[in-house]
Specification:
Elements: E1 6-15, E2 20-29, E3 34-46, E4 49-61, E5 69-82, E6 88-93
Antiparallel strand pairs: 1-2, 3-4, 4-5, 5-6
Length: 95
């Protein structure tokens, strides 16, 4: 959640053979005041738990007297998934 009316949506797709994880993300909702750009993602597998790390930038915007982007903040999200069932075990914002 970035604000009360907007959020970052992270989509994770698993392919089992060969095992590949694809990650895409986007902003959605009332996004006039911010934008999201995914910069990278990575994953690792240990004991049937897939750990997916998603990195990106949130740009906060203010359109007042010609001002545009006010600040950019780097974000890191970590999602853990059961490899066998696809269920999310946990999801946290690292920073």
């Amino acid at each position: 959640m970035v604000g009360p009316l907007a959020e970052i949506k992270i989509d994770i797709k698993q392919v089992m053979n060969p095992y590949v994880v694809t990650v895409t993300s986007s902003d959605r909702g009332f996004t006039l005041a911010f934008s999201w750009e995914q910069t990278s993602s990575s994953y690792s597998v240990s004991n049937n738990v897939v750990t997916v790390d998603v990195f990106g930038k949130v740009k906060y915007n203010c359109f007042f007297n010609g001002l545009g982007t006010m600040t950019t903040i780097t974000k890191h999200y970590r999602i853990k998934i059961n490899k066998l069932t696809g269920e999310i075990i946990s999801g946290v914002k690292i920073n």
